[in-house]
C-alpha cells in the first residue's frame, strides 16, 4: 500500500515537472518570436524620461499646446520647405551647448555676445528664430500667459518639422525651463563639432553628453534635409580632392563651388533634398557625403555597419532617429524652479539676475517667499 502511494506520488511529481518544462519552453518560444522580439527591443531602447518632464505636462494648463505648434510648422513648411531644416538645426545647436535650455535664442547683452554670434551659429536661419517667437506669441494667447517654455517649443518644432517633410513622428517629453544665461563663445566652439570632424572626435564630444555611436549615426541623418555653405566643405575640393569622394559628385560640387572661399550653398542630400528619408545613408555608401563628418561615418569601421543598416532600412533609421532625438532633447534640461518660462524667447524675463551661475528671477523669489509663508502658517 505504501509502495503504491509512493509510485502515485512519483507519477504526479513527474507530471508536474513535465508541465513546468512545457510552460518554460512555450515562454522561451514566445520571447524569441519576431513580434515579441521587436516589442522587447523597443522597450529596451526607449530612453527614460528625465525627472521633471512628462508626456502630458501641459494637459491641464494648455491642452492645445502641441497642436498649435504642429499647425504653425505645417503652414510654415508649406510656404518654405527650407524652414524645416532651420528649425531642426536650432534644436541641435541649442542642446549640444549647455543643454536643451533655449540659450541659443538669447540675444547678446552688455556681458558679451550671445551664442548666435559664435562662428558655428552664424549660418542659423533668421526665419527659424522668428518662427519660434511667433509660436511663442500664439501659445501665450492660447494659454493666457507664459506657460510653454521656449525650449519645449524648440523640441516640438523640430519634431514637427521632421514629420512634415516625410520623417517619423515621435513623442516628446515636456516640461523644460529656459535658461536666462547664454553660453560663452568657447562653450559653443567646444560643444558643436565642426563639419571637418572625424568619427573619433565626434564620439568624444557625444560621450560628454551621454550619446553613443548609434545616436551619432542616427542624428547625423538630419542632414537629409537642408543646405550647406561651400566654405564648410571646400577643404575636400581644394587644393587636392578628397580621395574618398565619388569623382562625379566632386565634379558637380565644383560647378557650385568653383574656387575655395566661394560664397554659395548646395543641398546636403543630392537625391531628395527636401524630403526626410534614408537617402542620406545611400549617399554615404556611394561616397557622396558632403562633410567630412558625414562621409567618415561610412569610412570608419566602427560606424559603417550602422550606416549600411540605415541605407537598407528606412524604418530602422526612423525608429532610431526618434529614440536618439528624445535622448538628445533631454541633455542637461532645466525643470521646476531651475529656470524660467521666457515671455520673449530672445531675452531673459524682466527682473532676472544672473550672477556666478546662480539664476534668480523676481517670479522665482516670489514663489519661494509664498511657499515659506505657507509653511509658517501666514
| Main sheet strand line-up | 1-2
**Tally of DSSP β-strands:** 4
Using the CA coordinates, give the radius of gyration: 26 Å
Counting H and I runs of at least 4 residues, what is the number of helices?
15
Q: Which regions contain 5 or more consecutive residues with pLDDT less than 50?
A: 9-44, 356-378
The end-to-end distance, rounded to whole angstroms, is 83 Å
Instruction: Report the portion of residues in β strands.
Output: under 5%
Q: What's the SSE pattern?
A: HHHHHHHHHEHEHHHHEEH
Overall average residue pLDDT: 86
Task: Give the helix/strand class.
Answer: mainly alpha
Helix content: 40-55%
Shape: globular
> How would a textbook summarize the main sheet?
2 strands, antiparallel
Can you put this structure into words, describing what you see?
The protein has 15 helices and 4 strands. It is mainly α and 378 residues long. The protein has a two-stranded antiparallel sheet. The chain has a two-stranded antiparallel ribbon with strand order 3-4. The longest helix is centred in the N-terminal third of the chain and has 31 residues. The chain starts with a helix and ends with a helix.
Question: Can you tag this structure with a few keywords?
Answer:
single chain; 378 residues; mainly alpha; two-stranded antiparallel ribbon; 15 helices; 4 strands; disordered C terminus
Amino acid at each position: 500500500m505504501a509502495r503504491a502511494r509512493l509510485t502515485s506520488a512519483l507519477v504526479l511529481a513527474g507530471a508536474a515537472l513535465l508541465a513546468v518544462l512545457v510552460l518554460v519552453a512555450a515562454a522561451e518560444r514566445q520571447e524569441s518570436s519576431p513580434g515579441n522580439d521587436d516589442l522587447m527591443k523597443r522597450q529596451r531602447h526607449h530612453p527614460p524620461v528625465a525627472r521633471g518632464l512628462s508626456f502630458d505636462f501641459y494637459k491641464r494648463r494648455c491642452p492645445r499646446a502641441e497642436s498649435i505648434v504642429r499647425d504653425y510648422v505645417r503652414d510654415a513648411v508649406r510656404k518654405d520647405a527650407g524652414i524645416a531644416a532651420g528649425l531642426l538645426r536650432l534644436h541641435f545647436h541649442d542642446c549640444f551647448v549647455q543643454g536643451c535650455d533655449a540659450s541659443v535664442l538669447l540675444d547678446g547683452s552688455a556681458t558679451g555676445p550671445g551664442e548666435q554670434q559664435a562662428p558655428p551659429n552664424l549660418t542659423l536661419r533668421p526665419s527659424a528664430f522668428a518662427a519660434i517667437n511667433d509660436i511663442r506669441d500664439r501659445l501665450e494667447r492660447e494659454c493666457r500667459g507664459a506657460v510653454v517654455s521656449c525650449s519645449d517649443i524648440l523640441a516640438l518644432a523640430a519634431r514637427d518639422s521632421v514629420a512634415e517633410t516625410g520623417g517619423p513622428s515621435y513623442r516628446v517629453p515636456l516640461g523644460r525651463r529656459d535658461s536666462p544665461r547664454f553660453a560663452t563663445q568657447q562653450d559653443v566652439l567646444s560643444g558643436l563639432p565642426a563639419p571637418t570632424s572625424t568619427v573619433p572626435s565626434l564620439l568624444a564630444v557625444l560621450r560628454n553628453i551621454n550619446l553613443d555611436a548609434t545616436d551619432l549615426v542616427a542624428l547625423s541623418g538630419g542632414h537629409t534635409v537642408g543646405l550647406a555653405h561651400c566654405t564648410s566643405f571646400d577643404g575636400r575640393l581644394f587644393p587636392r580632392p578628397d580621395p574618398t569622394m565619388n569623382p562625379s559628385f566632386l565634379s558637380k560640387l565644383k560647378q557650385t563651388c568653383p574656387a575655395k572661399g566661394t560664397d554659395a550653398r548646395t543641398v546636403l542630400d543630392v537625391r531628395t533634398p527636401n524630403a526626410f528619408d534614408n537617402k542620406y545613408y545611400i549617399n554615404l555608401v556611394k561616397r557622396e557625403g558632403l562633410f567630412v563628418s558625414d562621409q567618415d561615418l561610412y569610412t570608419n569601421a566602427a560606424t559603417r555597419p550602422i550606416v549600411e543598416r540605415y541605407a537598407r532600412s528606412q524604418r530602422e533609421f526612423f525608429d532610431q532617429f526618434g529614440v536618439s532625438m528624445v535622448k538628445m532633447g533631454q541633455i542637461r534640461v532645466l525643470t521646476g524652479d531651475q529656470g524660467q518660462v521666457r515671455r520673449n524667447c530672445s531675452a531673459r524675463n524682466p527682473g532676472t539676475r544672473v550672477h556666478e551661475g546662480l539664476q534668480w528671477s523676481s517670479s522665482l523669489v516670489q514663489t519661494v517667499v509664498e511657499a515659506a509663508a505657507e509653511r509658517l502658517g501666514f
